[in-house]
Amino acid sequence: MNAKEEFIQIYKENIHREGADAFLEFLEGPHSDFFTAPASTRFHGNMKGGLCAHSVHVYHCLKDYLDRQRVKEIYKMSYSDETIALVALLHDVCKINVYKKGTRNKKIDGQWQQVDVFEFEDDIPFGHGEKSVYMIQPFMRITREEAFAIRYHMGFSGSDPVNNVGKAFEMFPLAFALSTADMEATYFGNPQLDRVD
Fold this sequence. Notes:
Elements: H1 3-14, H2 20-28, H3 50-66, H4 69-73, H5 81-90, E1 99-108, E2 111-120, H6 129-136, H7 144-151, H8 162-171, H9 173-187
Antiparallel strand pairs: 1-2
């Protein structure tokens, strides 16, 4: 099963609220490149289909984090399968339609060669996590904790004031869990998911 097939399977098995089908139709439709877009220009998932593969990887990292005995028994963190799937699979929808194909010169074996690259060009500069929330909400209602988790999934590596991030993590533990899962998926990629075909 490739990343797109797995994404759709997880989505359909877990996300059932009103508007979920319409949002999936948008993701698969002609106005979205979610399933073919990279996840970044130069780092994690910087290949065709990287955004989808990264989102599936974040889902698995989040599930594993929340399954830890310490997290369940001491931190009392418990979320529905729907919430887990929604925040993990959709945290980066802000990256839809922002990566364009380009070229740059790169020295390979002592010779300058033109190589294909992805360039970032955002026509809706609404921020990162907040843009994902903004894109989801016209389709379906999300809870306050889901919204804050998606909004602050960049954690302390984003450009938000550290006090805001810390307060969000205190108020909404799911935000911390999603941020942790996103960091794990970003820095320890999953070669089994890093494919489209």
